[in-house]
Amino acid sequence: MKFSVVVLAAGMAVQVAVACAEGENAGSNDSTSQQTAAQESSAADLPPIIKDDKNWYFSWGYSRQWYAPSDIHVTQPGQGNNFTVHQVKGSDLATTIPDGIDSTLNLNFFNPQENIRIGKFTGPDKTFAIEFSLDHSKYNTDLGQTAYVSGTINNKPVSQNMVLDAQTFNYVYHNGLNHIMVNAVWLHHLYGPKQKPGDLELISRLGAGILLPHAENTILGNTNQLGPKWGLNSSCCFAGNDWWQLRGWTVGVEVGTRYRITESIYLELTAKEAYGALRNVPVYQGTADQELWMTEAVFSAGYLF
Fold first, then answer.
1. For residues 236 and 283, what is the distance between their CA atoms, to the nearest angstrom?
2. What CA–CA distance (Å, rounded) separates 93 from 136?
3. Do 125 and 42 belong together in one domain?
4. Domain range holding 284?
5. Fewer CB near the last or first residue (10 Å), C or N of the chain?
6. How confident is the model at residue 227 (pLDDT cuts 50, 70, 90)?
């Protein structure tokens, strides 16, 4: 009888111990599940991980320009000329789309009005970059227009209208009116997955730099003479007969959109407004000054690396 009671008590003790162990395990499993759910919820609330790569980008594009009327002041001491042609109308080089495509296929990239951008992001979020840009824009006075001229010509006062033709006043930057700038660049996400195919961003630029024009002009029958395009002493940038001339400064602002086709390839469409001050541009036996407002539309393709 005593032995049975002992066995019965021992069995009850084992059942109680098993029940307690099962309860502890269940509580432990519930706690683990709650921690896992909390971690998953926290991970879902975090922003997507952005890889710290593709910090550089390069783009190549083509553009059209529109210019506000401007005054061109000409000084030619040897000719007795010191005059201003007022509110001259100018336009870019009328390169057609087929001409631009043909130039590109023949690797003559600098025939159309092309645009180069090279930039580097300053952080992993890739919302701000420092950029170098070249706008190879072109300019020519519209031949056949009538403009008011004031000042001195052949040492005689002048105040009259003049028809600007190929011999009287043909003022050209066809190779071209180069805006070389350093820009601050901001990007703002608009739509789609960030930094993935389908990402649409607002892009804006603010920059300043130099003007490096190639001046071709004929004024009152006299054409300025420049040296060859390539050479050790005649290409650039300060001599009167250099092909390119460092002759001014420029500032500009640009706004548009950037769309990623792949993680590395994107398309960009922007509008730019720039102001340029040109000083001591070579003309025959003298120089010319001009201030320009340029509106530009740019379409380009780029690569992130």
1. 16
2. 11
3. no
4. 56-304
5. N
6. confident
